[in-house]
Specification:
The protein is mainly alpha-helical and 107 residues long. The chain is built from three helices and no strands. The protein starts with 9 loop residues before the first helix and ends with a helix.
């Protein structure tokens, strides 16, 4: 005799079966299903409320880290671009007076 693993309402059961069909369709269409083992995506898993809360916390933390990394990458580029445009005209006028690449050719 197999033990009962979960109880659910009929509407919840139907919802889970529909999600399973969607996963199967994705697998057939693209050859893989990226949600395997993910408690937030995998309809075959039945995570507890605590497990779901932990997953949501981990995802929020990951998103904050990604946003922080993006802003760190964008901020120096913006600073460099602003510094470059401020110094650009004086370099161009100096380079034009000296013949452009004449300074590099004398090395």
């Amino acid at each position: 005799v197999l033990p009962v693993l979960a109880y659910m309402t009929l509407s919840r059961f139907r919802e889970r079966v529909e999600l399973m069909r969607d996963c199967f369709d994705t697998l057939c269409r693209i050859g893989e299903w990226p949600g395997f083992g993910d408690p937030m995506e995998d309809p075959w898993m039945d995570p507890s409320g605590d497990e779901l809360a932990l997953q949501m916390h981990i995802r929020a933390e990951d998103e904050l880290l990604r946003a922080s990394a993006r802003s760190t990458l964008v901020a120096p580029a913006a600073t460099s671009a602003a510094a470059g445009t401020g110094a650009g005209p004086s370099r161009r006028s100096g380079g034009g007076a000296g013949g452009g690449s004449g300074g590099a050719g004398t090395r």
